Amino acid sequence: MSLFFSRRNANTPAIPERLDLAAGPVPVTVRRNPRARRLILRLAPGGTGIVVTAPQKVPARAIAEFLERHRGWVEERVARAPDRIVAADGALIPFRGGQLRLVQASERRASRFETVDGETHLFVGGEPEHFSRRVVEALKREARHDLQACVDRHAATVGLRPRAMALKDTKSRWGSCTIDRRLAFSWRIVMAPPAVLDYLVAHEVAHFRQMNHGPAFWAHCRELCPGMDHGKTWLKRHGAGLHAIEFG
């Protein structure tokens, strides 16, 4: 195993582009953050790479040495990362806490969810080259339906309405709320159990009253979602697996 560099000259290594590990090469992304006070290393969601957050003035050599010192940590985390699933014809992917069978159905014009022998199928209409896009479109529609229902319920409890709700495919966070109550959620949350989706919505709607993560916020979040501990734990343990699913 070796650490690969692109070199400015023979003595000054540039920021590493990848780590060659026993499991194969892993891309390295370095993000400069003016507020960072130290180097921070984490595994990208789904185990697709390594992310280093670095202060603005930390030199490339220090980042390279930092990665080499933590090679063992990287090896361990990559080995434990969830297996990647390609959302192709015949694949099984998580859906609302269960499983969803993806089936190419070119003879159909529209995609449709159906139950076949007790198993939920998504029959994907249209040409095969549009398969991945149509799967994502179908999942987004279901995610919007489930999220909107939860948002309406929790917003009614706190007595405030959101200004807007957007769906994204962010890897850094599952949801967000701005000070003017604009919500955003990762549509991949529809693949999690409904109770986890409910916790996520309760968390963001609680920010309508508390734009922080202090004790008052968590107390308010628990009022909205008494089972929030389960939701938090599930996302921590299994959330990366949802990001490991590749949609073309």
Describe this structure in words.
The protein is of the alpha/beta class and 248 residues long. It folds into 2 domains: 78 residues, no CATH class; 161 residues, Metalloproteases ("zincins"), catalytic domain (Zincin-like, 2-Layer Sandwich). The chain is built from 6 helices and 14 strands. The strands form 4 sheets. It has a 5-stranded mixed beta sheet with strand order 1-2-3-5-4, with helices on one face. Strands 7-8-10-9 form a 4-stranded mixed beta sheet. Strand 12 and strand 13 form a beta hairpin. Helix 3 crosses helix 4, helix 4 crosses helix 5 and helix 4 crosses helix 6. The two termini are 30 Å apart. The relative contact order is 0.12.
Secondary structure layout:
Layout: E1 3-4, E2 18-21, E3 24-32, E4 40-43, E5 50-54, H1 60-69, H2 71-80, E6 85-86, E7 92-95, E8 98-104, E9 112-116, E10 119-124, H3 131-158, E11 164-168, E12 175-177, E13 182-186, H4 194-206, H5 215-224, H6 228-243, E14 245-246
Parallel strand pairs: 3-5, 6-14, 8-10, 11-13
Antiparallel strand pairs: 1-2, 2-3, 4-5, 7-8, 9-10, 12-13
InterPro entries: UTP_pyrophosphatase-like, YgjP-like_metallopeptidase
Pfam family, one: YgjP-like
Domain YgjP-like metallopeptidase: 38-238
- What is the name of the CATH class of the largest domain? Alpha Beta
Which structural class matches the secondary elements? alpha/beta
Question: How many domain units?
Answer: 2
Give the rounded overall mean pLDDT.
90
Lateral strand order in the biggest sheet: 1-2-3-5-4
Sheet having the most strands: 5 strands, mixed
The fraction of residues assigned to DSSP E strands is 25-35%
User: Which oligomeric form is depicted?
Assistant: single chain
- Counting DSSP H or I runs of 4 or more residues, the number of helices is 6
What fraction, in percent, of the residue positions are helical?
A: 25-40%
How big is the Rg? 21 Å
CATH superfamily of the largest domain: Metalloproteases ("zincins"), catalytic domain
CATH architecture level-2 label of the largest domain = 2-Layer Sandwich
- The name of the CATH topology of the largest domain is Zincin-like
Low-confidence stretches: 1-10
Question: How far is the N terminus from the C terminus?
Answer: 30 Å
How would you sum up the global shape? globular
Order of helices and strands: EEEEEHHEEEEEHEEEHHHE
Extended strand count: 14
